Amino acid sequence: MTLPIAWAAAREAVFEAGSAVAPGPVPVPLVESDGLTLAEPLVTLTDLPAFPTSSVDGWAARGPAPWRIVGRVLAGDTAKPLAVDGTCVEIATGGMVPDGTTAIVRVEDSVTTDGMVTGEPRRGKIPDWRRRGEEAAAGEELLPAGTPITPGVIGLAASCGYDTLSCRPAPRTALLVFGDELLTAGVPGDGRVRDALGPALPSWLRRAGTDVVRVRGPVADTLEDHVAALRSAIDAGAQVICTTGGTMHGPVDHLHPALAELGARYVVNTVAVRPGFPMLVAQLPGGQFVAGLPGNPQSTFVALVSLVLPLLAGLTGRPLPTLGTVTLGADVPGRGDFTHLALVTLADGRAHPVAHVGSSMLRGLARSAGFAVIPPGAEGHEGTVAQLVPLLDGDRP
């Protein structure tokens, strides 16, 4: 009998296994990089901003008022220096501030008469022009390697002058749903249940930053069909193959024999966590990973956050997913020698357990913010702080 590994140790083990075979960086155009991961630190290619710019429409002036108008600077122009006191140029928002400028006067704070300008520059916490390098100096690290690329990161990189980013490619994933009892359409009944995982898990895998290249289900409950389905996912180029069901050793649980036939090596085989302990990650001789998720839906998602997300983080060069903290709004029972991942919802700044949390249920999961972590041999008490495993939201991590 295989002894389950501690939950925290299982997360570390799959993360390290993924990190060991993470693919090398590739250059990706900015507009195609959303959802990928920085393979190298993002550093500024120039001072940011690269030159002083006006934050307002008005006048760039030198010396005390009044100022004689000697030119105009629009956004995109190269400004000539102001060499003489008592002179100014009209300047547009985003225009380059000329060398020699001592003040910016907003157009609404100025009066123009016969080619002369009078007015007072504003004094306050927000300057009317941005100094060169005030956001970042050339060569300064803005973001470390391993940072997920979001639209904000893309915009920052563009402002620094990048055309491409050095990225870790998105892992290619596949999903195989095992089970003769599954229906793919219609209302469940007469011994058949509706497949809830085939439609749901690909969306979760995409939100985790992967390219889903194969979805198949239900796969018949025979060893031959299991092996064939795994080989088809390999042929499709999947680097991570998620399966659902068949992780125990019952009469129709064929995942372990299929892994043996394919020459797989276990990274993790059963985890001391409830719900969902019969979960596993194995590595095939070709380097691909098989993540065996339990067939009960809530247990499946426990396995997803416990093993699949840390594995994907390692493969993409991201850090091991961090756990948040929450204050419990009610008592949460422990599960003996197992870590208990308890679904909670957030209200009034506290985490409250939800109802309908059987391992076969999805009603509680659908309205939860994540799983409160109750360590082995412990219980969660109202008012105490617990770790939180967040559920994926609508954005890629």
Automatic annotation (TrEMBL):
Functional note: Catalyzes the insertion of molybdate into adenylated molybdopterin with the concomitant release of AMP.
Cofactor (UniProt): Mg(2+)
Protein's recorded name: Molybdopterin molybdenumtransferase
Protein's organism: Dactylosporangium darangshiense
Catalysed reactions, semicolon-separated: adenylyl-molybdopterin + molybdate = Mo-molybdopterin + AMP + H(+)
Species lineage: Bacteria, Bacillati, Actinomycetota, Actinomycetes, Micromonosporales
Domain MoaB/Mog: 174-314
Pathway: Cofactor biosynthesis; molybdopterin biosynthesis
EC top class named in words: transferase
Record SMART domains: MoCF_biosynth (SM00852)
